[in-house]
Amino acid sequence: MSAQNVGSRDGHQAFRLHVVTWNVGTAEPPADVRSLLQLDSQPATDLFVIGLQEVNATPVRYISDLLSEDSWSHLLMDTLAPMGYIKVTSVRMQGLLLILFVKQVHLPFIRDIQSTYTRTGLFGYWGNKGGVSVRFSFYGHMLCFLNCHLAAHMNYALQRMDEFEYILDRQDFDMYNTPQVLDHKVVFWFGDLNFRIADHGMHFLRSSINNGRFNLLWNRDQLTMMKKKEPILQEFEEGPLCFKPTYKFDRFSETYDTSGKKRKPAWTDRILWRIKPKATETEDENRSTSSSADDDEYPIKVTQDMYTCDVSYGVSDHKPVIATFNLEMRKNVETPLVTLTVEGHWSADEDATFWYTILENFESSTWDWIGLYKIGFKSASDYSTFAWVKDDEVAANSEVVTVQMSKNELPPLAGDYVLGYYSTNMQTLVAFSPTFQVSLRKLTSVLAFGCTSLFIWLVWIQILESRQAVMEGLLPENINGYEK
Asked: Taking every annotated instance into account, which residue ranges of this chain make up the domain Inositol polyphosphate-related phosphatase (predicted)?
């Protein structure tokens, strides 16, 4: 059951957010990220936000990733799509990558999506350090997610603060009510922030960690110390550091650095959050804060359920950090911008007809289009076919517009599908039809083309079904050394 259905209070609903930050050290992704995403947890997650640092960004690889999705995005989409999660957007700056996934039911209520980035490393030219962010409205609440990779090494704590403030100052959004990061109702700040544990020697550090006495190290954690004197940091909340320092490990092990450098362990990888306007802090066992509001009618409450790292992953010298939150709020927006209507089920033997209606004013365009998506699709571009909306003028509010798709454009694979209205200006899917079925072309219609056509048709269907089985994990891609 999705978190949206849990804990209703005076019209409030709780949405479950799963945030991951991981410095992947230019490594290729592991074979399986299900435990990283905790896909078996209940209630189910509503939003996934994954921030990566040091994704392989050699010039050849970076250009290749711009032409098609990088290997990390591919793995995340392949893992989450079968569970009903859609990739909404992503932003990449060299090795920094930030990706947003959401349950399909919520996608029409994610609006005003914008992303930006700020370089800080090497005088801002190469972008090996800095921050990338995505902001959007979620049921009318303004959220911003900021993934940073700040300056390394023990002696650069002040430089890290300077970089953070520089990123906040330079990141602008084309939104009148939230032009900068801190204008958003909730900000999540995470990444390889690179703050270290000062003063303690290696023996004391490792002894404290091995005995699980992390509290002995908290007062010398640079980020914790900086919070005592930096007003901007005092506005951010963070759960207790009750997990092992996440840097630096020998790869494919749970052993801290045994190289000649012998880097001291540190909590370099962090997840914090801030609510605006700042309310009186209330603390309970789950650490929750709530907005006090210039908009009392639509407050929001953030409760952190978990803050930990997953030491089982070893492809990098950092361990990934995970935080889960409940976002409790009243929906400020509940009506979709468009409705899509389909009658009955579709057959590949016949032209298909459907209808759409604009319900609310938005910046629609004659470049908008409506895609046909097989259930389990990964992103807005993962359509089977599409049709342009009304091609001569923008549809008026409440006007019922009829659209046809030729039977020759319908997918050859039967299954459950939805129609999705894609807004070019909003860069997202803003509406879905109810799920309906598309059936295969009838054999009798194929026989009219003769035996040769029938044979080709049967072979083609077998190939498509084999590919579908591979995509759905029912068959391996390689059988006895042969690629399927």
From this structure: 13-333
